[in-house]
């Protein structure tokens, strides 16, 4: 699977540069000043403490959804179902936050755990179907996304509320909001979930790189037949991988539920946290550290973009085009490799010519 | 008896209406996947089609008037849609990109381009309502048939029937023509196809561009029958349902037709089910999630095993075996 060969960091970096260059060209074509546009982007992400807070806020679920996709990738599975897993995690965390009243030291971990379990269950189902019936996980996870979307909406409307569009606020004892952090970045919605996300990334790294289970998951991703022959259970590893992947995604949902919003509302469509997670995982080379960096980049681009129309008159949708192109370039890494090889031979040829010219 | 006919008369036309864009897009998906290229980008292709259909409609209406405008919009959306889909072909066929990831990028790109251009053209996040919507008519002669006429041919859309006819045309092309045989061979065993002189990559380019043509048409038809304008949520998962129809229909054009009609029934039930006796007691969420649950069950094998084209998802690298 060519996704796993993206070990080097240079392909993502070249892709980002190409994407930003393409964005600059688009701005030029439509008569905007690309330098002003990109300055507005940077200011919009880090210009003051509020913007910085919002960037960290958005980066938090991105790290987790990126980890979710990357975790499944390492076993050779594509989890497009992060969207749905985020929604059920969101719902589970808010439900625990609403229904119980414990001291924070119990309540908060319980809400987080509920989200992880809900997301994990939503990942377990496609994993089980893949292992047991050889059903392609992509289709099942897409279907599971819609089931999650409509079911969570129905539960918010009919179970958690009496026909209302959103739930009450969760009790403070289940909230990730912390006054010291909010005071640091006033008015922003930043919450302590960012530390959870970092811990999750460390867990990802440790589990994949340092444990026997992680080794087996990777082995199944590289070559299921060889793994089977070596005595590993391919089926068990597929289910385990999808379940843990869903757990990361459920945690991302908790970031929205008990972190960012503090409630759950009806969703007309998906949050896009999960779809962006695919791009983030890919850009991060499916390793924990890379995912954290890529999530930071996405948070920066998306939050900074909101400042572009005000400061530079550039439509913020431009950033969606740029991120799409970055994914394209990473996916088509063969193109970049070809380009590198062409440049190398060209360089060699010029060098030889210069040498030949010097001799005659 | 007449009560049943009344119910059928309210369900079938609306189910058919929901199904039509799905049929178009799913037929495109069948072409692409039969050639061995996974197309998660159907959603993006529909977004592109909806965007183009709406913008062209808005711009051409003053010139072409109400009868011609929707048709011209759909055709131009389909043609530009096929060009847009060629990006997916370039990435996956020429540059051997992961097909799923490239499809995801197509989805992002279509929405990004659509919204960016709308801001650029109209200075706001959504377009005005188009005036040249597709309109329902009675099909002459056929609508006079007793019983069947009122249910199927009265107050219907020409696009519905074009979709059904196209499904049969696509079936004929894929299973009865040399082109179709080549297309299938490329998706099943590209090396064998290559060894008898079929240009694998060219076939795959054609197939992916056809999916853009049909997806673009499907998106434009959806926009010009339901939404009437283009904004962020004009196409909201229709493309993914079309993808499900491809799989549910076992990669067969007529299967996709059937699956799309089935999804159409499910969607229309979830919208108008409240007005039908018996169904009104079922909470609407069950009707909403039914198509997705059934697709999973179908895949698991309760409805019958579905086998994907064998080479689906693998890039063709000449001489690699």
Automatic annotation (TrEMBL), chain A:
This protein's GO CC annotations: plasma membrane
Spans traversing the lipid bilayer: 9-30, 50-73, 80-100, 106-125, 137-156, 190-208, 278-301, 321-339
Subcellular location: Cell membrane
Keyword field contains Cell membrane: yes
InterPro entries noted in UniProt: ABC_transp_permease (IPR001851)
Record carries keyword Transcription: no
UniProt-recorded name of the protein: Nucleoside ABC transporter membrane protein
Bilayer topology annotation: Multi-pass membrane protein
Key words, A-Z: Cell membrane, Membrane, Transmembrane, Transmembrane helix
Organism of provenance: Aquisalibacillus elongatus
PANTHER family: ABC TRANSPORTER, PERMEASE PROTEIN, GUANOSINE ABC TRANSPORTER PERMEASE PROTEIN NUPP
From TrEMBL, chain B:
Coiled coil regions in record: none
Segment forming the signal sequence: none
Main location class: membrane
Xref: Pfam families: BPD_transp_2 (PF02653)
GO MF entry, a single one: transmembrane transporter activity
Xref: PANTHER family: GUANOSINE ABC TRANSPORTER PERMEASE PROTEIN NUPQ, SUGAR ABC TRANSPORTER INTEGRAL MEMBRANE PROTEIN-RELATED
Name this polypeptide is given: Nucleoside ABC transporter membrane protein
Organism taxonomic ancestry: Bacteria, Bacillati, Bacillota, Bacilli, Bacillales
């Amino acid at each position: 699977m060519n996704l796993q060969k993206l070990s080097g960091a240079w392909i993502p970096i070249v892709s980002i540069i190409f994407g930003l260059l393409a964005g600059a060209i688009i701005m030029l074509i439509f008569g905007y000043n690309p330098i002003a546009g990109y300055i507005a982007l940077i200011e919009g992400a880090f210009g003051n403490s509020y913007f910085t807070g919002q960037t960290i806020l958005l980066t938090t679920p991105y790290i987790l959804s990126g980890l979710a996709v990357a975790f499944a990738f390492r076993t050779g599975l594509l989890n497009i179902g992060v969207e749905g897993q985020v929604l059920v995690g969101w719902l589970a965390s808010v439900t625990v936050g609403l229904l119980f009243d414990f001291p924070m030291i119990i309540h908060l971990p319980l809400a987080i755990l509920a989200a992880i379990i809900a997301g994990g269950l939503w990942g377990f189902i496609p994993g089980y179907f893949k292992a047991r019936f050889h059903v392609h996980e992509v289709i099942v996870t897409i279907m599971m996304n819609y089931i999650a979307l409509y079911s969570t909406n129905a539960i918010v409307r009919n179970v958690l509320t009496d026909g209302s569009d959103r739930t009450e606020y969760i009790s403070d004892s289940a909230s990730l909001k912390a006054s010291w952090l909010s005071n640091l970045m006033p008015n922003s919605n930043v919450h302590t979930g960012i530390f959870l996300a970092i811990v999750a990334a460390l867990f990802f790294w440790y589990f994949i790189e340092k444990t026997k289970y992680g080794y087996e998951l990777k082995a199944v991703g590289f070559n299921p037949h060889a793994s089977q022959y070596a005595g590993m259970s391919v089926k068990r590893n597929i289910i385990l991988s999808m379940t843990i992947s869903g757990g990361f995604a459920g945690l991302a949902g908790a970031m929205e539920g008990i972190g960012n919003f503090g409630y759950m509302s009806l969703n007309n469509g998906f949050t896009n946290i999960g779809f962006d997670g695919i791009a983030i995982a890919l850009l991060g080379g499916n390793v924990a550290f890379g995912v954290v960096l890529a999530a930071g980049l996405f948070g920066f681009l998306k939050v900074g973009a909101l400042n572009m129309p005000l400061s530079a008159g550039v439509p913020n949708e431009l950033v969606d085009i740029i991120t799409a192109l970055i994914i394209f370039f990473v996916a088509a890494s063969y193109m970049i490799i070809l380009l590198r090889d062409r440049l190398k031979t060209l360089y060699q040829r010029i060098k030889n010519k210069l040498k030949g010219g010097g001799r005659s | 008896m007449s009560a049943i006919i009344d119910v059928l008369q309210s369900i079938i036309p609306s189910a058919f209406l929901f199904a039509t864009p799905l049929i178009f897009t799913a037929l495109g998906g069948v072409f692409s996947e039969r050639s061995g290229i996974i197309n998660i980008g159907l959603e993006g292709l529909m977004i592109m089609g909806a965007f183009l259909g709406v913008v062209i409609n808005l711009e051409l209406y003053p010139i072409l008037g109400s009868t011609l405008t929707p048709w011209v919009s759909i055709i131009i959306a389909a043609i530009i849609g096929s060009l847009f889909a060629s990006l997916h072909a370039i990435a996956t066929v020429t540059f051997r990109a992961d097909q799923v990831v490239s499809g995801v990028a197509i989805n992002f790109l279509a929405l990004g381009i659509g919204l960016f251009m709308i801001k650029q053209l109209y200075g706001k996040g959504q377009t005005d309502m188009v005036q040249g919507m597709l309109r329902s008519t009675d099909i002459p002669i056929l609508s006079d048939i007793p019983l069947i006429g009122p249910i199927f041919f009265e107050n219907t859309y020409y696009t519905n029937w074009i979709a059904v006819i196209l499904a049969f045309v696509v079936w004929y092309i894929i299973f009865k023509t040399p082109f179709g045989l080549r297309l299938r061979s490329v998706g099943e065993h590209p090396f064998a196809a290559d060894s008898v002189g079929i240009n694998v990559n060219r076939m795959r380019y054609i197939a992916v561009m056809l999916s853009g043509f049909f997806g673009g048409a499907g998106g434009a038809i959806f926009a010009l029958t339901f939404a009437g304008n283009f904004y962020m949520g004009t196409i909201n998962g229709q493309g993914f349902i079309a993808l499900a129809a491809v799989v549910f229909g076992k990669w067969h054009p007529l299967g996709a037709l059937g699956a799309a009609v089935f999804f159409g029934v499910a969607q229309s039930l979830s919208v108008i089910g409240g007005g039908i006796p018996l169904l009104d007691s079922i909470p609407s969420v069950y009707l909403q999630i039914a198509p997705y649950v059934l697709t999973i069950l179908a895949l698991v094998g309760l409805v019958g095993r579905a086998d994907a084209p064998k080479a689906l998802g693998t890039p063709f690298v000449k001489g690699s075996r």
